[in-house]
Amino acid sequence: xxxxxxxxxxxxxxxxxxxxxxxxxxxxxxxxxxxxxxxxxxxxxxxxxxxxxxxxxxxxxxxxxxxxxxxxxxxxxxxxxxxxxxxxxxxxxxxxxxxxxxxxxxxxxxxxxxxxxxxxxxxxxxxxxxxxxxxxxxxxxxxxxxxxxxxxxxxxxxxxxxxxxxxxxxxxxxxxxxxxxxxxxxxxxxxxxxxxxxxxxxxxxxxxxxxxxxxxxxxxxxxxxxxxxxxxxxxxxxxxxxxxxxxxxxxxxxxxxxxxxxxxxxxxxxxxxxxxxxxxxxxxxxxxxxxxxxxxxxxxxxxxxxx
Length: 307
Ligand SMILES: Nc1ncnc2c1ncn2[C@@H]1O[C@H](COP(=O)(O)OP(=O)(O)OP(=O)(O)O)[C@@H](O)[C@H]1O
Fold this sequence. Notes:
Largest sheet: 6 strands, mixed
Strand order of the largest sheet: 6-7-8-3-9-10
Number of helices: 8
Keywords: ATP-binding, Cell inner membrane, Cell membrane, Membrane, Nucleotide-binding, Translocase, Transport
Helix content: 10-25%
Pfam families: ABC_tran
Oligomer: single chain
Mean pLDDT: 94
Bound molecules: adenosine-5'-triphosphate
Distance between the termini: 37 Å
Number of domains: 2
Number of strands: 17
InterPro entries: AAA+_ATPase (IPR003593), ABC_SmlMolc_Importer (IPR050093), ABC_transporter-like_ATP-bd (IPR003439), ABC_transporter-like_CS (IPR017871), P-loop_NTPase (IPR027417)
GO molecular function, one term: ATP binding
Protein name: ABC transporter ATP-binding protein
């Protein structure tokens, strides 16, 4: 189990401290999948780096089971065998092939096992056809997949992923995401994923942590937070929403009815595939709702909220 106990961390720039994490407490079980979300600059990457032991804490402690994770002040080499970290900037060996990169840290004493392991990982990241390709000739998304496979090669107990699919095109993203996250579950590898993409979270995360103002402001299942997001920042992660009488109401929860207290004049239609997102105005506010078809501009409709 990962235990993060009361940790505080600041970057120091020209003697001035920039506090990024303030008294964070949480734990992650073996095999558990945690997503960290938050605005850009809220400290998601910093939190992953601190857990990895890349920086020294100002306060608090981090443990994986009984081992305390210590920073560079205490460790000549950053990192531990049981934990892997795939950063946004993946550092690969450009002049050797994909399979050589993936197998880089696997022992050569067991060539058959090594070959099988590399093949298994090539399949997880869907790069079988690129095994013999030199990494320098790969695209950004392909490199990201090699970095993922390399991090998994020695089967860590916990893996930290920073925006793991950010460079991957939509065509491959869906199946790659399923393949990687299902693999981690199967092997009981804990993972902490920093992401902006709700698709990384909703179907896969056991818990979702929201970072804001240097603190964890929510730490619940995606289902619980979707149902009761508590604050606009969390709701925004799930889609378009409105604040009506201080209540968060998602755009899809508003429906056109014959008459109601909520009268809206249609301002714009946005095509979304199987529905349109409609932007409308009341006398005071902008309201977003969904409709199967496009509506006439300036048309007046009445809305009601449904669960
Ligand atoms: N090496 C560094 N030195 C000084 N300040 C830094 C450093 N890295 C990040 N910061 C600052 O720390 C804060 C948190 O940055 P961090 O990269 O952790 O945010 P993030 O939530 O991961 O952002 P994003 O979603 O844009 O990747 C920001 O204000 C950033 O400017």
